[in-house]
Amino acid sequence: MWEEYPPTLRISKKNRFSERESMRIIVANDDGFYSPGIYALAEAASRFGEVLIMAPDGEQSAMSHAITIQRPLNYRPIKLDRFEAYRVNGTPADCVALGLYHWGGADLILSGINLGSNLGHDVWHSGTVAAAKQATFFGVRAAAFSLDLNGDEPDYEALRPHVEAAIRELLEADRPMLVNINFPQNPQGILWTHQSVRAYNGQIMESEDPRGRKHFWFGVVPLTNPEEGSDRWAVEHNYVSMTPLRSDLTDEEWLRKLRR
After folding, report:
1. Is the peptide bond before 53 cis (omega within 30 degrees of 0)?
2. Strand 178-183 vs strand 240-244: parallel, antiparallel, or unpaired?
3. 192, 244 contact by CB (below 8 A)
């Protein structure tokens, strides 16, 4: 259902956090420390507590849940306005693990804001979602934030109240441990949604570089329209989509059939 944005976080005995308490929030991403999206998310998160930024030192899009095990990791401080911030020579999931190590824990992990949506099947290969998922492996509540792009430069200042509203929604009592959040360009409200599952026609597109050498791009074309109530449907209708996710991928329906 459509929800009005509350002006302040509702505080009750059931709430785990309030704006008067000092939360510790780690912000990560997969676009790298240079992305304006991570600063925008850190700015919004600072309304709710102390913020630590841990970001890859280079582009890590579509890395999914890769972790670094064949070489040592390091993280170095970077200047990012007023925030304590570090650049990591690893993946988005590495950033979250190192951030939790550096601080000795945290209350909330936020990943993003990704330059581009992470809807439907995208959650399988998204580094942004993987960073949030990594947090839940450590028992920390987390959310991934992504912005649908239309070719224009994102207006993060206009988006900020909607990001803050989504964070407030996360901090209400009895909320999921892992949430995938996607913003349209001009949000009109918030919807709790399910993941859009559609059939795709996979395409390999062949081309040539200036020297005549072949190279290939992978692309997909959706074969079905998104169903109402799904994440993709919500964003297409200018709603902020908030989709609860889980780490257990077991197909319970098939498991019940096979155990008969």
Report:
1. no
2. antiparallel
3. yes
Tell me the pTM.
0.84
Distance CA 229, CA 1 (A): 9
Distance in angstroms (rounded) separating the CA atoms of residues 222 and 248: 26
Confidence class of residue 198 from pLDDT cuts 50, 70 and 90?
low
CA distance 224 to 46: 40
All residues at 6 or more sequence positions from 199 whose CB lies less than 8 Å from its CB, including other chains: 222, 223, 224
3-state secondary structure (DSSP) of residue 80: strand
For the record, the structure tokens of 36 come out as 């304006």
Strands (E) located in the chain: 23-28, 49-56, 75-77, 84-88, 108-115, 142-147, 178-183, 190-192, 200-208, 214-222, 240-244
Sort strands 75-77 and 240-244 into parallel, antiparallel or unpaired: unpaired
- Per-residue model confidence (pLDDT) at position 17: 41
Domain architecture of the chain: domains with CATH: 23-196+227-258 (3.40.1210.10)
**Residue found under tokens 């956090």:** 17
Provide the 10 A C-beta neighbour count for residue 47.
15
- Pick the closest to residue 25 from 38, 6, 10, 34 (CA basis): 38
Residue among 137, 110, 112, 133 at smallest CA distance from 123: 133
